[in-house]
Amino acid sequence: MKKLPGFLAFSVLALSANALPAQAFSVAPSSMTDSEFNGLINSRQFTELFVAESRAGNGSLSSAERELGINQPVLPVIGGGLPFPDAQGQFAWGSNQPVDFVLSYDNTTGGISYQVADQTLTANVDPGSDPNSIFLRTRAQPKDTNTLSSSLILQSLLLTDDRETDTLPALASFFTQGEDPDIDYLVVSDVVGSFTLTGQQVFSWEGTFPDRSRLATQFKVGTFNNVDPVPEPLTILGTAAAAGFGIVLKRRRAAQDS
């Protein structure tokens, strides 16, 4: 699948504070890099409110490496800054085992809840912060040459806000060969008020466990600032088919590389 270049995704998905309530979520995959995303923050085009995260820590329930977190926002400084967890937890991932998650934000109280399987993290931000966008991010990278393959898939995604409920397309990153990570973004804008995002996270690997965020997913919640409305935003129906096709292509490519 040809994903939208980063700069094009930003313009197509630009969010207006005056968007009509009847509009659906605007959803599109993007080929942006992490540097480009941090550039949005540093230029103050996007203000991060919080980040919910699942990551490969040390693969166990020990406290040495956290696997779950609700992170403070990255601030607009040179280099983007480093996220700091307001809440964190331990989780022992199993390869190719779908794990249910629920991310909820209450715009009235500022309460955040991030549940992964039977573990729930909570945190708070200022009430009425009015986030309007969510950047979903996945990452897959080997630990060493003994990591034969790895992938991270977000699937069965359902988003509900104060206006509507809609399914979102799957998002996936696949490591095939080399040492560079495969990083993918799905940009969701036109979110109104409180929201709940549900779905499944699938961490998979063959060989050496790719620890320390080599497998990771983040939900970066925040607000686009001072952006003009887009007359014809991308709809979920079209991008769902495109994203599904992209996952198939990635899997075929991975099979060919192996």
How is the topology of this model organized?
Blueprint: H1 6-12, E1 26-30, H2 34-42, E2 46-55, E3 68-71, E4 85-89, E5 99-106, E6 111-116, E7 119-124, E8 133-140, E9 147-161, E10 165-168, E11 171-175, E12 182-189, E13 195-207, E14 215-224, H3 236-257
Antiparallel strand pairs: 1-12, 2-3, 2-14, 3-4, 5-6, 5-13, 6-7, 8-12, 8-14, 9-10, 9-11, 9-13
Instruction: Compute the number of strand runs.
Output: 14
Query: So what's the overall shape?
Result: globular
Mean of residue pLDDT values: 80
Radius of gyration: 17 Å
Ends distance = 20 Å
The proportion of strand residues reads 35-45%
Structural class: mainly beta
Going across the major beta sheet, what is the strand order?
A: 1-12-8-14-2-3-4
- Helicity, in percent? 10-25%
Uncertain residue ranges: 1-23, 227-249, 251-258
Oligomer: single chain
The secondary-structure element order is HEHEEEEEEEEEEEEEH
Number of helices: 3
**Largest sheet, described in full?**
7 strands, antiparallel
Structural account:
The chain has 258 residues and is mostly beta strands. Helix content is 15%, strand content 41%. It has 3 helices and 14 strands. The strands form 2 sheets. Strands 1-12-8-14-2-3-4 form a 7-stranded antiparallel sheet, with helices on both faces. Strands 5, 6, 7, 9, 10, 11 and 13 form a 7-stranded antiparallel sheet that branches. A hairpin with a 4-residue loop joins strand 5 (99-106) and strand 6. Mean pLDDT is 80; it is low at 1-23, 227-249 and 251-258.
What is shown here, in short?
With 258 residues, the protein is mainly β. The protein has three helices and 14 strands. Helix content is 15%, strand content 41%.
